[in-house]
Amino acid sequence: MIAINAESSPSGARAVVLGLRANWPQFTLLVLINAFVGGMVGIERTVVPLIGAEEFGIASTTLVVSFIVSFGVIKALANLISGHLADVWGRKRVLILGWLMGVPVPFMIMWAPSWGWVIAANALLGVNQGLAWSMTVIMKVDLIGPKSRGLAVGLNEFSGYLAVGVTAFLTGYLASQYGLRPTPMYLGVGYAIAGLLLSIFLVRDTRDHVRTEIGDHPVDAVAIGFWEVFALASFRDRNLFAASQAGLVNNLNDGMSWGIFPLFFASFGLGVERIGVLKAVYPATWGVLQIATGPLSDRWGRKGLIVVGMWVQAAALFLTALTREFHYWLIGSLLLGLGTAMVYPSLIAAVSDASHPSWRARSLSVYRFWRDLGYAIGALSAGVIADLAGMPWAIGTIAALTFCSGLVVALFMRGFQPMQRAHL
């Protein structure tokens, strides 16, 4: 744990201490807020592709998944600027702005007179996720310090993706009982209002914690600009390059599963409630297991978990594409969740490891830009392949690409030496 005297604190108000024990109230609050952020995505996982196909009569898979393309592109761009805005405006202000962008989303979907409204709603959802989720990650990393980043990220992603899974299940159930609209969207209204109010009245900014870490950092950083950070995180640093491409491919297969899986399962006669179960198992498994995989990456290192996790995802996708029965699809969803749980917190922690605290927020933003651009690329490419060759080919192609991405990490990423365990 690292501390500075109150007299040396930029705020001049009190000592700033890094670590979970010293910051658990704010850390726990941010875990809860990120659950609401994840729930905003969860309201769409089961029902929105079915709204496009059943209520608006869209026959083209590419057009049905177009809402994910708008979401992915806008979220990627919001991620790209979120770190810079966080450094200039402060983390809390960016978090509040993200929630203001998210409030209209469930209302637009439940009242949408055309598919264009759903696409527009997902553009706003992309801003909400890019700003709000980025801030919850960055603020937790700020609070906990350098020695337990995997734990911080694991808890953050656990809360977000568990909420995605639970909400996907609940919306599937509500849709089976009350129809695709508007009842399932009421969950989103509650999430948005709760997240906004908690962010305004209870969250405190964490920039003083960053200043504390910079003061204790053993290596002085030369001031570098945004585009230098962009180049480092995209291709110049081999660890950051390996992480960025893996993040992109991870969300590429997630974007494919978001748009294609409900249509694929429905094509074999599966009802919306059982589709909701499959769509819930994957992110719920992903979310819960990150409680373990995040801290394990602190102990064992990031690289091995990333490589094996990508290959487990590939195996899960091949299993889904090649089978036609619910129990095999359930196993595939569990494996996909396991693989993603191994990869997700390890990648964010690896990017944090390779970045100086003075530009860590920006490098995380660049990584999240490439990662979430994968939503758009995955949904669009899978939609085109599905229209040309069928949905099993779309799923299988993405599976092969996921395997290759794990191979890139194995070849390019340097092994991370776990730090001494933090005293929490």
Task: Give an overview of the whole structure.
It is a single chain. The protein has 424 residues and is mostly helical. It has one domain: Growth Hormone, Chain: A, CATH 1.20.1250. It has 17 helices and two strands. The protein has helices at 20-45, 47-55, 61-64, 66-89, 91-102, 105-111, 115-144, 149-178, 186-201, 207-216, 226-236, 238-266, 272-300, 303-322, 326-353, 360-389, 391-412; strands at residues 3-4, 16-17. Strands 1-2 form a two-stranded antiparallel ribbon. Helix 2 (47-55) crosses helix 12 (238-266), helix 12 packs antiparallel against helix 13 and helix 12 (238-266) packs antiparallel against helix 17. It is globular.
- Enumerate the strands of the largest sheet in spatial order, edge to edge or round the barrel: 1-2
Tell me the number of strands.
2
Number of separate domains:
1
**How is the CATH topology named?**
Growth Hormone, Chain: A
Gross CATH architecture: Up-down Bundle
Portion in helices: over 70%
Q: Class, according to the CATH hierarchy?
A: Mainly Alpha
**Count of helical segments?**
17
Largest sheet, in brief, is:
2 strands, antiparallel
CATH superfamily grouping: MFS general substrate transporter like domains
User: What value does the average pLDDT take?
Assistant: 88
Query: What is the rounded Rg?
Result: 20 Å
Distance between the termini: 8 Å
- The topology string of helices and strands comes to EEHHHHHHHHHHHHHHHHH
Give the structural class: mainly alpha
Question: Strand portion, in percent?
Answer: under 5%
